[in-house]
Amino acid sequence: MSAAGTPGRRGPTAWIDDLALGVRLSVAGGRSGWARLAMIAAGVGLGVAMLLAATAMPTAGAARSDRSAAREPGPRVTAPGPDTLLHGEVPSQWGAIRIDGRLLQPEGDRAPVPPGLERHPAPGEMVVSPALAALLDSPDAGLLRERWDARVVGTIAPEGLAGPSDHLFYQGADHLDADSYGVARIDRFGGQDFGEPGGLPPALLVLAILGLVVLLLPVMIFVTTAVRFGSESRDRQLAAIRLVGADGATTRRIAAGETLAGTVLGMVVGALLFLASRHLVGDLLPAGYDFFPADLRPVPALVALVALAVPTAAVLVTLSALRRVMIEPLGVVRRGGERRRRLWWRLLPPAAGLLLLVPLLDGLPENGDALVEARITAGVTLLLVGVVLLLPWLVQVVVRRLGGGGVAWELAVRRLQLDSDTAVRAVAGIAVSVAGIVAVQGLLGSTQTAFAGRHGDTDRFQASVAFYGQPAGWPAGRAASALADTPGVDAVDAVSHLRTDPDAPDPVSVRIAGCDALRHYADLPTCADGDSFVAAGRDRPAIAPGTTLTFQDEGVESRWTVPTGMRGVAQYDPLLGTDILVTPGAFDAAHEPYTFLVGLDPAEPEAVEHLRNTVHRIDPFAHLLDFDDPYHDSVFAMVERALRAGAVALLLLIGASMLVNVLEQLRERRRLLAVLAAFGTRRRTLSGSVLYQVAIPVLLGLSLAVATGSALAAILLAVVDEPIAFDWAAIAGVAGTAAVMVLAVTAATLPLLWRLTRAEGLRAE
């Protein structure tokens, strides 16, 4: 101790000695010291576990991508040989579950075997993933078992699956033709150069970045709050250190070392929590994005960054917290007095965030590069950091102007006027979480709304079927009859889509269908057989009446003359790219329709599954599109559930931090509370003051969070070119959870409050 107390010591040696002494004192502080160590370790451990999960995401994603690439068919080869294989993709679906199917027909005894399989399945056999095997064995999957005329002979090993929820099968075949649609002749799996990756669509890219920032920023705030956990025993210990001769700087370094011990222990706890919960992380992701627990391996460089940043932040936060504490030999005194907070520098981070995001308001490139992702990440982070910086100023400005009220109100307001730092630190995490959730909900809700309207008018037709080329033995009329005879199908209308030479300048596309079918694609005021319409809003030269258009359809050339008097109509989905809509009576060129719009009976819940079975029987390579696709609804619902679960977890995490902070404030005011009780102040009044003291910063924080989150959502929706929409029910749910948490924190502090108001609290040493 004498070395530690030597005045004027400088240099790294003094820091190391004092930090080491603090570490030793942290484990020798008795029951209260161990309690503080445990609180810091638990708080830091929870935060570090979440940070480690985030550092493992790149590795998990890469492992999933590598397995997916390894099972993709290799480059096409032209000639058959002993090492070639005919490979056909036949995707399917069951409710909200996407099923990836592959047909295999070896042309030689050395044909490549897909990863995860021991041999090629023979015709009439299929090998399925464990998830698909469980689905096929379920009692309500009878229609699905009828879809494939094959016997399950095995399961795919994990090395052939992207993730545990993959629904994949390989089926043996003997009827594939290398020249048919969807069939490729290959001599290996994997190794094909697909060029530059396409990346995520803009809306999903922004949503992923926003979700990552919303998850990690409150965690970092929580970690920095956890290392401030203290107790009266630590105050006595610091005073004792001063009493034996240590100066103020040495005492603060020793306190930092004590916190460092809890932080290091918390990092060990976080690593153990991460290892124990690896199998749960993948379950929080939507189907198609999950991974095996073994894939969750943190990136070493990111782990090193966490291992360095967390202890460093703990030491710096402790030293910062002790700046306003006077540690004297006879006790510890916290400096009071009002410090007027300045606004100008708190506006710099959100202003910088706006400067990064505003240039992107014209839209993102379809395949965003790393620079765009970095700008979005930095912009979103700076805007949310602005919430943390603005909240202390907002609380101080508001409480300074609050008027009088009851005794409980006066006690709480005066306490916040004197020192609101402790309350604001806990509320900052709540504010950041709610602001991010509001922004995510706005982006998610708008994307979901835009997707729902992408398939046009679905009142009469709820699905479409496209046959690529004439299926063997199924002329258009027979295919239409088979579709119409399917249980649960009410209507079938044929649609033809013809296009002029795509290599010619400004090729013209024409859609031929009856009036009912055309109304699915465009808003037609009136329609009768023989009418023609031109799509309005198309960025292309006008098509002059009398122009003769030449089409090639399945090798058959046909000509059609553009009529006069075509009316302009608006398409529901401009992405369909149709220039002219024509009824059959106005189109006299030869064409064979192999696209059909299908109306389903709403009283038949499995109508679409019956339709999928019929389509698969006609042509397994056909494409069936369910306009009310439950898969996308399930993905959105899964993302929304994960978002709400993460929000609640973060709020509970921060609520625990707030509880500890409120308990610490009560201990600091124990003598004042005992005096108030001795003068006749009722317990109900003191309890109300604690409630107001917690509720006022929370209310201000939530107001700032909703305003910031709404503004951020509006900016991001403009970036991805989507209409603004908010899920107010979800926002109200998060705000309600915060309100319940305030009540829970208040209720949890009452036992200590009542104990501190006893007469024993008047004693002083």
UniProtKB/TrEMBL annotation:
Chief location category: membrane
Domain of life: Bacteria
Transmembrane parts of this sequence: 34-57, 203-227, 260-281, 301-322, 343-361, 376-395, 423-444, 642-663, 690-716, 728-754
Region (Disordered), start-end ranges: 63-86
Cellular-component GO terms for this entry: plasma membrane
Membrane topology recorded in Swiss-Prot or TrEMBL: Multi-pass membrane protein
UniProt keyword annotations, A-Z: Cell membrane, Membrane, Transmembrane, Transmembrane helix
Basic and acidic residues composition bias: residue spans: 64-74
Subcellular localization(s) per the UniProt record: Cell membrane
Domain ABC3 transporter permease C-terminal: 211-326, 647-750
Name of this protein: FtsX-like permease family protein
Species this protein is from: Micromonospora echinospora
Lineage: Bacteria, Bacillati, Actinomycetota, Actinomycetes, Micromonosporales
